[in-house]
Amino acid sequence: MAFSHYFVGIPGKKCGAIIFTAEELSNCRDIATMQLCANKLDKKDFFGKSDPFLVFYRSNEDGTFTICHKTEVIKNTLNPVWQPFTIPVRALCNGDYDRTVKVDVYDWDRDGSHDFIGEFTTSYRELSRGQNQFNVYEVLNPKKKGKKKKYINSGTVSTATMSFSLTQLNFTVAIDFTASNGNPSQPTSLHYMSPYQMNAYAMALKAVGEIIQDYDSDKLFPAYGFGAKLPPDGKISHAFPLSGDNENPNCVGIEGVLEAYFQSLRTVQLYGPTNFAPVINKVANCAAEITDGSQYFVLLMITDGVISDMVQTKEAVVNAASLPLSIIIVGVGPAEFDAMEELDGDEVRVSSRGRFAERDIVQFVPFRDYIDRSGNQVLSMARLAKDVLAEIPDQLLSFMKSGGVEPRPALSSSPLPELHRHI
């Protein structure tokens, strides 16, 4: 889809136009890691060899090309080996494995007038085959080819390594059962169980959960509550399973989580305080057992108020920042959420006892910002899900990089797997 915007200037004179092109993004969340090398590239520098770099272009639906990646420059060589780089497959080909990927080879010049060495085309499917005799590409310069009868090529580029990340997502839910939410039997309560519409907790859970469940293949979601007195002895718990089974906290699908949530409202007593650290540590302990990149954990916490154990929570976040874990916090109700903003380390990285978190792993959004004044609940919840999940791919990638996790190689003898369940 393309449309133009024309500049308005001096009457009678054309001032040019900007053409906007849009394409719907695929739901592919695969992340590819590749490394390329070249052999016998053309010599472009008078006093040396060449300083080659690669420019990758994604092909668009209208036949045009858009730059999606540039490699680093390798100085004074005709046989460069570029560093491995990681790129979302969606950025490379929008999830279409057979879509053309064009690669230009340039010789870097200090003044920016880089010399064109040549080009070749490939596809993600071809690249995924990794290092083999079929993944050697001739670098061709059309001008040279037209002028020189004996012209063969301007060198070759081959795939040194190729791998892609297949990371299983594990989704966990934690719901605030503190008394500040109000009596669930009263319409003023944030936990009110109305027969006509979902409360804020259920809406937030459904909005985020229904999107994220597509990336969790087994659809079994551990779900916990915190800040309640449990029957029969009234013991306060900050990480009790909504299923009621301490041995098995899993619920089947988001509908199963909602059912367990409503059942818990009927059986536990809302109490307090609002402690985050116990449930964060519980999920972090699970994440600590699998740090090879094969699994990544996402904890959704829905709460209404001020954190009571802020010191312990910050320590838990700092400890968890080195693990394959992201934390989404949705704040419901009219309270001020200054503490949540502090945990969301976009501006200042969370710290505890002088130690800063290795990564930003917390994303906070206030639910009230997504209440659509027109009453379009579906639209509001779609915006909420989009915003709270926006940082997950980058956070997953930052874990891979900070931990030096190498993605597992693709199997050249097998077709590419369906990746829509992986992030």
From TrEMBL:
UniProt keyword terms in alphabetical order: Calcium, Metal-binding, Repeat
Gene3D superfamilies, per the entry: C2 domain
Gene Ontology cellular-component annotations: plasma membrane
PROSITE patterns membership: C2
C2 domain location: 14-137
Region Disordered: start-end pairs: 404-423
UniProt record, GO biological process: cellular response to calcium ion
One Gene Ontology MF term: metal ion binding
InterPro entries documented for this protein: C2_dom, C2_domain_sf, C2B_Copine, Copine, Copine_C, VWF_A, vWFA_dom_sf
Family designation: Belongs to the copine family.
Protein name, as recorded: Copine family member IX
Phylogenetic placement of the source organism: Eukaryota, Metazoa, Chordata, Craniata, Vertebrata
